[in-house]
Amino acid sequence: MRAILSGVHQKKGKQILEFELLDMAVSLDAAYVLFVEKNSLASIMKPITKVLSHNIIRVNIDAQDFHFQSEDQTEFEWQIFLISNSLTNKNVIQVESEYLSDRHQLELTSYYQFNSDAQGMALFNIRTHQSNDEFMINSVNLTDTDLEITGYNKINGTLIKNQQIILKNHSTDGTLEYPVTKKLFEGMFTVSIPLTDIPQNSVGELFIEYELNGKQIKQRLIISKSLAGQSTDIRLAGNREITLEKRFDNGILVKEFPGASLFEKVGAAGGKASTMVDVIRMIQDKLNLVRMRFLFKSGHSPYENTTIIFESFGGRQVSDSPYAIYKVFKTLYPGINMIWSIDRVQKKFCKENQIPYVIRRTNKWVRVLEKSQFWISNARFPTWVKKPNYVTYIQTWHGTPLKKLGLDIENVSMPGTTTAKYHKNFVREANRWDALVSPNDYSTQIFRSAFGFNNQILKIGYPRNDELINTKPEDIDAIKEQLGIPLDKKVVMYAPTYRDNQFAEKGKYTFELPFDLDDFRKSFGDDTVLILRMHYLISNALDISDYSDFVYDYSNYPNISDLYLVSDLLITDYSSVFFDYAYLKRPILFYPYDYHLYKEELRGFYLNYEKDLPGKIAENSKQLLEEINHALAHPDMSANEKFMNFYNRFCAINDGLSSLKVVNYVMHQIESGM
């Protein structure tokens, strides 16, 4: 039997812990969770607050209860156990951890953090008697133009107000003040200090001022973790150099001084010439598939500098959850080496956005993939790609499952494979994943069974959906302008799935629109536009040249979240896109014109399609047009009981910080040397 801490939610200053139970063969009727403090051996028993399903339980705690007055103890390290009673014996299970959090302030002088020990067992750490003149930040970085700082703007759920960052000059005691006006995510602030403001030949220290519960507070900015992965050095025009240093007391120094001379730079660069020649030679050395297989069997050693490989949909895009995670990494830890694995068609996008990349199936790709310490992908790598034992492979996946997956597909009809081969390859690949991101308990249970997956699950929500939670109305207008969509028109988005039985050859799928565009234009064309988002496997481009005044095809647009944000209504059939779109609490229509065929002859469903969906089902094109008209007149679904029940089941755990939580997970692996 196993018990895993899989989620922690903050609510009104309290903490809600969720545990996943695996192979649980005993009753939970008399079960409870026991916390044991490692040093004092103090214990606290908490009842199971709620049983969410047969293997998901919830326990409510108040972190304030887990520390006590003690002259010789300021750090409290609680181990967590699940205790279950039966008629014959008592079962004691130590809880493992899949949840790793940043520290959260309980008050000015105490904080808590969930962590794990070297064996992966959950720890609930509380630190008291912290200096009240210290304020912990999340990251500090130097960009080409600014010194950027991010941190949390709440203390135990209470919002801090009127923050401003202060840079104090050690030599002159002069100060520069920068009000905090931007939020990185909900609950986090970010501030940028222009590098041109930093005085020459100076050493400065960072402070923060803010208001909390009516009191004005000033504290030093500190950072407890190392500066590894963050950008701590920048060279500016005029032979200037600025560096960041962490003091012994965790304070942050900002130093400005003259940069190295040209002679010194030339001398330092001389030793790198041979390495550059080798890189160029590798880029030019293209390999075929046989050569690829051979190279992956060759021995490799990891890079000295931590390197992360990102890939989305097998290199076809730079998008989805891996891209959301990448952007947070670039903001918080730009010093880490990050490389995208892409197909050649993505070279232009990467160059335009200054994204380091490597072309798939090249000599260099094999080398970079095999020497990197982390892989982050939303789809499967080829079976012949070897995963070294020093690689941590994080699988973000790419949707909440509606259709059957993996082992749950009884009859695989996709071209180029058989059911047995498909099952075997799926399980083999899943067993290579060290951590799998899950958006909800429903998905976690399916992933366990359909993938045969018993490794770590990060139940944090999909990082790609952070954008849906954190984007403001003015940002949506900017996206519309970028896409060329009129601001004064409503937007209907049609995003169907592909059909496994509609293919022309291996990897080539076909599709036709199941409604008439002339009818749509006649009904809605004056004040509504239609955007199409067809599945990437569909090969034939729809001819919409006669409808360019109101139909936009964004099938190849990399960021589907942008399309969600600009849409007032989503129409789909069996695609899992509606799970993500529901975050916006906007109407969703379902148009399953081949429902019985799809359900019975193709892949089947996990949900009850007729009862569990968050919107109405149209059975024909006439009914579809009628339901579109009704849905556009009712744009907010937050008062719809059925919709909100769906929302609470599938969307509620995502707090807009999912990308950050994956980043924290990776940084924990790096810091602990795992």
Summarize the structure.
Helix content is 24%, strand content 31%.
Explain the layout of strands and helices.
Elements: E1 2-11, E2 14-22, E3 32-37, E4 43-47, E5 50-53, E6 56-61, E7 75-85, E8 90-94, E9 96-97, E10 104-107, E11 110-116, E12 122-127, E13 134-136, E14 139-142, E15 146-152, E16 154-155, E17 158-159, E18 161-169, E19 175-179, E20 182-185, E21 188-194, E22 202-212, E23 215-222, E24 233-236, E25 240-246, E26 252-258, H1 262-270, H2 273-284, H3 289-297, E27 307-311, H4 320-332, E28 337-342, H5 347-352, E29 357-359, H6 363-371, E30 374-377, E31 392-395, H7 419-430, E32 435-438, H8 441-450, E33 456-459, H9 466-470, H10 473-483, E34 490-494, E35 503-505, E36 508-509, H11 517-524, E37 528-532, E38 551-553, H12 560-566, E39 569-572, H13 577-581, E40 588-590, H14 595-601, E41 616-617, H15 621-632, H16 641-650, H17 658-672
Parallel strand pairs: 1-9, 13-23, 27-28, 27-30, 28-29, 30-31, 31-32, 32-33, 34-37, 34-39, 37-38, 39-40, 40-41
Antiparallel strand pairs: 1-2, 2-6, 3-4, 3-7, 5-6, 7-8, 7-12, 10-11, 11-12, 14-15, 15-21, 16-17, 18-19, 18-22, 20-21, 22-23, 22-26, 24-25, 25-26, 35-36
